[in-house]
Design a protein that fits this description.
CATH architecture: 3-Layer(aba) Sandwich
Number of helices: 11
Shape: globular
Helix content: 40-55%
Structural class: alpha/beta
Strand content: 15-25%
Length: 258
């Protein structure tokens, strides 16, 4: 399967579909491209779809430098290497922060954004008392499994979930740098002038990101809409993929005409 070397990192990606519009799917912390398995093929029936493993995650090689700015630079470089522009960035959790960073740094590449239980525009800080738990999580698969069960509360069983846990262990060394970087970001000043249409999806059972954070993120992006998913947790892309695809397609039809 294809890899692309950008910014000194050998990154895995998949591309499918021949649609006029391009969707780029960006996973979250301790994630991988696998988090989009339920959506990738169905979306490719209508759009060109790209999903990637961030550096140190999934089938991409570790390369150090794990941070939101570095991930955003990697995504931007991949888009340029693949000849893609005017894309819709679809970011889950930390992938939402990466999407916002790309949109700020290279707005000419981004036509729309879909933020799925995204890290908030203001950033999010990990309390010091939780940091030892992060260290335990990346060393102990059972502990990681319990942590991920809280992230996908309505889908935390079966072979697919076990594969997500396996991928999380691969990405484990990126965990602490990622949480540190998430606490260092505040996109609100730059987003104030952002004119990119944005759909913010929020599963209200999320125990990591609060509704108030998502409301403030909505208020930070002038062209944004907040859509609430009752009964869903942090990961609608895994917990409610059919509904998310339906809402994504309706949003794109309204905002960009596809």
């Amino acid at each position: 399967m294809p890899h692309l070397t950008v910014n000194g990192a050998n990154l895995y990606y998949e591309q499918a579909g021949q649609g006029e519009r391009t969707l780029v799917l960006i996973h979250g912390n301790v994630g991988s491209a696998r988090w989009w398995d339920h959506m990738f093929t169905p979306l490719a029936e209508r759009y060109k779809v790209v999903r990637i493993d961030l550096r140190g995650c999934g089938q991409s090689e570790p390369a150090g430098g794990n941070s939101i700015p570095q991930y955003a630079a990697d995504v931007q470089a991949m888009l340029q290497e693949l000849g893609l522009n005017r894309v819709t960035l679809v970011g889950h959790s930390m992938g939402g922060a990466i999407s916002m960073a790309v949109a700020i740094n290279a707005p000419e590449l981004v036509e729309a954004m879909v933020l799925v239980n995204s890290a908030p525009a203001e950033g999010i800080t990990t309390p010091d008392e939780r940091k030892p738990l992060l260290e335990m999580m990346i060393k102990d698969r059972n502990f990681m499994k319990m942590a991920l069960a809280a992230v996908v509360p309505t889908a935390a069983t079966g072979e697919f979930f076990e594969a997500l846990v396996d991928d999380a262990m691969i990405a484990g060394p990126t965990t602490v740098p990622n949480y540190t970087s998430l606490g260092e970001q505040d996109f609100r000043p730059a987003l104030a002038s952002c004119q990119i249409p944005t759909l913010i999806v929020y599963g209200v059972q999320d125990t990591l990101i609060s509704l108030e954070m998502m409301e403030r993120t909505r208020d930070s992006i002038p062209e944004s809409t907040l859509l609430l998913y009752e009964g869903m947790g942090h990961s609608p892309n895994v917990e409610a993929p059919a509904r998310l695809m339906q809402d994504l397609e309706a949003f794109l039809r309204e905002k960009v005409g596809v």
